[in-house]
Design goal:
With 64 residues, the chain is an all-beta fold. The chain has one domain. Helix content is 0%, strand content 50%. The protein has no helices and 5 strands. A 3-stranded antiparallel sheet has the order 3-4-5, with no helix packed on it. The chain is elongated and about 40 Å long. The two termini are 15 Å apart.
């Protein structure tokens, strides 16, 4: 995740370790100043997609 100011300067960045087959599709601001990242995860051996939801704080940090 990457947060930029109005001029395009990086305010913070945080790498979220997900697999090659996982995809983020939406980022939503939360009332506490954090973010919800929503997307899908895919296991090649399973052949099914599952929902991926990650909640971060204001600086993009999250707990695994």
């Amino acid at each position: 995740m990457l947060k930029l100011d109005a001029n395009g300067n990086t305010l913070w960045k945080n790498v979220i370790n997900i697999s090659l087959h996982d995809r983020a599709q939406a980022v939503i601001n939360t009332s506490d100043g954090g973010y919800i990242l929503a997307g899908s995860t895919f296991s090649p051996g399973d052949a099914e997609h599952d929902l991926l939801i990650i909640k971060t704080d204001q600086s993009g940090s999250y707990e695994e």
